[in-house]
């Protein structure tokens, strides 16, 4: 049911007929239609957030904005951590970011963070054994970071639409 | 005195004997002296009156020597009355002053004389009479005799002004508060309305909630109509409804929180059937059929509690259920089942309890309602300490807590958390694990050094068996996997703050551990009150499958790892708790179908069983599980006073309380009453040991790679839930080598199990003091491994 809400909203995002939006009862839209949206965000989680909201979504909006800020900052810090090979720091950042992303239902980012963390974990274990691999790992890490960034941008776009569309 | 001509002013009546009526009188203000004064003066001119009233020696005063005579004879002549008191009053009015007669002073005029003085009333000073005026506020100012009054007069308005200002301010404050309350209320009702809308339901005027579009399955509809026609359908319509609400008989309006105007849903729908066993089949049906809907179902934890006054069921809902389908389908059942089980058990027990006890246990509902009109879940919201370093997660949790009406504190890392815990008491702690400075586990260890009671819930995304064991080993009571849903958070709160819940049970039922009463003693009584007392400790074991290593092939916990299907067994002194078992699989009728396989037909056979039968069954089951344990070497570090022992159950557990499978035959994740000897038993049951004592050290990590550790967890009936919230309690030792077990058993680290109940007022409920935990049982237990 809340899926309904989300679908309705995504419908708005897609500029569907205002009528669809207006009807509270709303027709049940085909979830498959919004597959791409679904994959970025886990709606079940996200819908819960919306549950916590007031009607004008002040709470979640604030939360999302906060998340944006945090994300931007995190990316910068991650970059510098990679550059300085400060993997523990990177790990901490990754964990942090993973937590917030997961809390908001941004599963893709969360998964990327997990991958990153796993990789870092492996690094820790292997670094002594294979110092050479450091640079390789760095490449991998950077790739992961890039992917994370892209996913984040997707999320950002979606969420911005989501909230601005509410106006 | 010489008579003299008197110029008379036309307006004045001046016939004074022997006194010059001063032209002053006429030439002055024109008003002349007040009549009273004039008469007074005239009176004093009369020599005849001298023995009774005359001028004073110095002529500055006059004296009434014989008040009685004066009043009788003279007053009437001049003043047309014979009331001395009135005369004196008049004198006062004109600002005359009585001259006090002290003990020592001479009494030149006699003992009864009254001497009056006025500066303007002097013998021979007729002209001054004019100046004698009545005491008025204005005159007070002018009149030096009343010098004090100007300040008073000035002061009084100031005082008034201050008071008025204060009042205005207070009023403004109150107004503001009122507005805030209103807006909060609005928010909540809006939320409810929204949710209802989303669910496709409308609340009708008659209070019933009907589906707008026939969305969802029939079963849902049926439940939604809230026709509690059968004992099975009772609770659930409420489940599907929005925020916590109480459903009660229509004639029990006090039970319906007034702040939920939409939810007198029950009133029309509560059937008259008074059977206390309400929550069951229908609920599960409902959830089964509408799992998708359930995802958005808000608070929906049904507790069927008969209205004490009516014998009709009162449902208190208090759960947000916004889990994914499978979970939500399970949870409601669980809760339904649990509630029903509880009820049935308590019902069973109730026979041996006097109803008067029960009525004591349940304070009048109206007061509860009045107090918590807007918060039907809690009779008193739990104070929460939230320890979380991530701002976003913090905000989420705090928002949720706000909406729940729980006061909370926030700590940003482990150090702050320890600090806060040392300063204040909280009802529950939500502790993030990954934190800078001091992580959650270490913080918990530190906290446990001085606080063994407060439930500490770990919030983490690391929920491998090792992690979990670590958490429990260090004193944590429960696990809430991140990201968590609102529902699971709520459940966690409910679970660990049972004593704060807002539950009403009918007189016919023993209270469900969710007693409204917060009195720890009461709860303790019920707990330990003997067989017939309240809830027998209910325990059940749950399956936890750590790594799904195939031992418990049916172990649903594998997938539910994150979703915490573990129940915690907090055997509260002998409380029997039926976990969500597949009813059908449970012989002997211990069916609490909190099983996803359940077709929703809960037959809480508990009702049919006597306490002893139940205990027997549990024992049998325990025996079974013990054997099972011996077959596995899963080790676990158990959290201290959790009555958990790990029994290796497979999903088929429950079926086999009696069966003896080395194969963990429990079907469901939760085995029913697994009363292994190590589990808690009511103290009264001699043969049932009480919980493990609280260990102090950290147990060794599980040795085996066995993933499927079944946790037999006994939860008190009070707990009733929490299966979905990743509550995992391990009883160390099962499957361990004996030494390990012993070691583990020493390691029950911390204090409060989620379900344990403190014995303090408003505490958690009965706690199990160490001496209730006969070590021999543990040893006994160990023998089996």
Automatic annotation (TrEMBL), chain A:
Keywords, alphabetical: Phosphoprotein
Region feature Disordered, mapped onto this chain: 17-36
Residues bearing PTM Phosphohistidine: 95
GO terms of biological process kind: phosphorelay signal transduction system
Entry keyword annotation includes Phosphoprotein: yes
Stretches with biased composition (Acidic residues): 27-36
One term of GO molecular function: protein histidine kinase binding
GO cellular component: cytoplasm; nucleus
Domain HPt span(s) in chain numbering: 56-158
InterPro entries: AHP1-5/YPD1, HPT_dom_sf, Sig_transdc_His_kin_Hpt_dom
Protein name as catalogued: HPt domain-containing protein
UniProtKB/TrEMBL annotation, chain B:
Keywords: DNA-binding, Kinase, Nucleus, Phosphoprotein, Transcription, Transcription regulation, Transferase, Two-component regulatory system
Positions of the Response regulatory domain: 383-497
Any single GO BP term: phosphorelay signal transduction system
InterPro entries attached to this UniProt entry: CheY-like_superfamily, HSF_DNA-bd, Sig_transdc_resp-reg_receiver, WH-like_DNA-bd_sf, WH_DNA-bd_sf
Protein name per Swiss-Prot or TrEMBL: Kinase-regulated stress-responsive transcription factor skn7
Regions of compositional bias (Basic residues) in chain numbering: 770-785
Bias (Low complexity): 256-275, 543-570, 650-686
UniProt-annotated location(s): Nucleus
PANTHER family: HYBRID SIGNAL TRANSDUCTION HISTIDINE KINASE J
A Pfam family per the record: Response_reg
Ranges annotated as biased composition (Basic and acidic residues): 215-224
Protein's UniProt keywords contain Protein biosynthesis: no
Annotated Polar residues bias: 356-366
Molecular functions per Gene Ontology: DNA-binding transcription factor activity; kinase activity; sequence-specific DNA binding
GO CC terms in record: nucleus
Organism: Podila minutissima
Gene3D superfamilies for the chain: 3.40.50.2300, Winged helix-like DNA-binding domain superfamily/Winged helix DNA-binding domain
CDD domains xref list: REC_hyHK_CKI1_RcsC-like
Ranges where the record places region Disordered: 207-275, 326-377, 542-570, 623-709, 754-785
Keyword Transport: no
Sites of 4-aspartylphosphate modification: 432
Tree of life domain: Eukaryota
């Amino acid at each position: 049911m809340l899926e309904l809400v989300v679908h309705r909203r995504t419908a708005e995002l897609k500029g569907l007929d205002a009528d669809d939006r207006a009807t509270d009862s709303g027709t049940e839209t085909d979830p498959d239609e919004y597959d791409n949206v679904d994959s970025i965000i886990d709606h079940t989680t996200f819908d819960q957030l919306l549950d916590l909201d007031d009607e004008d979504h002040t709470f979640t909006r604030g939360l999302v904005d906060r998340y944006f800020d945090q994300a931007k900052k995190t990316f910068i810090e991650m970059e510098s951590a990679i550059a300085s090979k400060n993997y523990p720091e990177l790990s901490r950042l990754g964990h942090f970011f993973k937590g917030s992303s997961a809390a908001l239902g941004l599963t893709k980012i969360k998964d990327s963070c997990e991958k990153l963390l796993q990789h870092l974990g492996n690094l820790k274990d292997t670094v002594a054994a294979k110092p050479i691999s450091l640079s390789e790992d760095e490449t991998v890490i950077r790739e992961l970071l890039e992917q994370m960034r892209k996913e984040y941008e997707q999320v950002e776009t979606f969420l911005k639409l989501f909230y601005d569309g509410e106006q | 005195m010489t008579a003299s001509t008197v110029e008379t002013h036309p307006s004045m009546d001046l016939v004074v004997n022997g006194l010059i009526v001063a032209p002053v009188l006429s030439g002055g203000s024109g008003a002349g002296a007040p009549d009273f004064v004039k008469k007074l003066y005239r009176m004093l001119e009369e020599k005849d009156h001298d023995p009774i009233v005359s001028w004073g020696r110095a002529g500055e005063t006059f004296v009434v020597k014989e008040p009685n005579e004066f009043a009788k004879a003279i007053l009437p002549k001049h003043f047309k009355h014979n009331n001395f008191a009135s005369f004196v009053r008049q004198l006062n009015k004109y600002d005359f002053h009585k001259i006090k007669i002290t003990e020592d002073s001479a009494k030149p005029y006699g003992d009864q004389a009254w001497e009056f003085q006025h500066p303007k009333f002097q013998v021979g000073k007729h002209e001054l009479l004019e100046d004698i005026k009545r005491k008025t506020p204005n005159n007070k100012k002018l009149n030096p005799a009343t010098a004090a009054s100007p300040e008073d007069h000035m002061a009084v308005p100031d005082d008034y002004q201050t008071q008025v200002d204060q009042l205005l301010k207070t009023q403004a404050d109150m107004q503001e508060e009122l507005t805030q309350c209103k807006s909060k209320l609005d928010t909540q009702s809006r939320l409810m309305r929204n949710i209802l809308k989303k669910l496709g339901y409308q609340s009708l005027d008659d209070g019933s909630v009907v589906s707008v579009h026939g969305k969802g399955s029939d079963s849902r509809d049926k439940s939604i109509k809230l026709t509690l026609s059968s004992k099975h359908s009772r609770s659930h319509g409420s489940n599907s409804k929005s925020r916590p609400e109480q459903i009660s008989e229509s004639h029990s309006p006090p039970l319906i929180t007034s702040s939920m105007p939409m939810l007198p849903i029950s009133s029309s729908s509560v059937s008259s059937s008074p059977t206390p066993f309400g929550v069951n089949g229908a609920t599960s049906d409902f959830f089964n059929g509408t799992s998708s809907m359930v995802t958005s179902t808000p608070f929906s934890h049904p507790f069927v509690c008969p209205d004490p006054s009516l014998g009709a069921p009162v449902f208190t809902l208090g759960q947000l259920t916004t889990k994914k389908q499978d979970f939500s389908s399970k949870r409601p059942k669980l809760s339904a089942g649990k509630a029903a089980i509880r009820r049935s058990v308590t019902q069973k027990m109730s026979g041996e309890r006097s109803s008067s006890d029960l009525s004591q246990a349940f304070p009048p509902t109206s007061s509860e309602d009045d107090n918590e009109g807007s918060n039907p879940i809690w009779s008193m919201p739990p104070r929460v300490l939230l320890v979380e370093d991530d701002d976003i997660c913090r905000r989420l949790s705090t928002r949720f807590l706000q909406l729940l009406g729980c006061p909370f504190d926030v700590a940003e890392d482990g150090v702050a958390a320890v600090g806060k815990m040392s300063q204040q008491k909280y009802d529950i702690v939500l502790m993030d694990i990954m934190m800078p400075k001091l992580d959650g586990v270490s913080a918990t260890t530190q906290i446990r050094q001085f606080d063994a009671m407060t439930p500490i819930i770990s919030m983490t995304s690391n929920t491998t068996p090792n992690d979990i064991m670590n958490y429990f080993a260090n004193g944590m009571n429960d696990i809430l996997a991140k990201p968590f849903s609102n529902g699971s958070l709520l459940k966690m709160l409910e679970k660990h703050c049972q004593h704060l819940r807002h539950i009403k049970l009918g007189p016919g039922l023993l209270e469900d551990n969710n007693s409204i009463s917060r009195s720890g003693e009461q709860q303790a009584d019920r707990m330990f009150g003997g067989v017939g007392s309240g809830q027998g400790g209910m325990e059940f074991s749950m399956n936890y499958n750590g790594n799904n290593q195939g031992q418990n092939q049916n172990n649903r916990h594998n997938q539910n790892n994150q979703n915490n299907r573990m129940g915690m067994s907090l055997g509260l002194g002998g409380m029997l708790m039926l976990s969500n078992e597949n009813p059908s699989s449970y012989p002997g009728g211990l069916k609490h179908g909190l099983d996803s396989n359940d077709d929703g037909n809960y037959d809480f056979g508990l009702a049919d069983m006597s306490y002893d039968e139940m205990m027997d069954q549990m024992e049998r089951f325990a025996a079974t599980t013990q054997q099972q344990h011996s077959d596995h070497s899963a080790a676990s570090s158990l959290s201290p006073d959790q009555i958990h022992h790990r029994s290796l159950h497979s999903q088929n557990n429950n079926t086999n309380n009696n069966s003896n499978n080395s194969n963990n035959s429990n079907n469901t994740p939760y085995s029913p009453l697994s009363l292994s000897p190590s589990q808690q038993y009511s103290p009264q049951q001699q043969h049932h040991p009480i919980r493990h004592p609280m260990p102090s050290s950290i147990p060794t990590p599980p040795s085996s790679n066995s993933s499927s550790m079944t946790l037999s967890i006994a939860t008190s009936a009070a707990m009733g839930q929490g299966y979905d919230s990743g509550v995992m309690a391990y009883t160390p030792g099962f499957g361990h080598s004996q030494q390990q077990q012993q070691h583990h058993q020493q390691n029950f680290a911390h204090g409060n199990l989620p379900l344990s109940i403190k014995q303090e007022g408003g505490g958690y409920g009965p706690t199990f003091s160490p001496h209730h935990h006969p070590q021999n049982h543990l040893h006994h237990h160990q023998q089996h491994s």
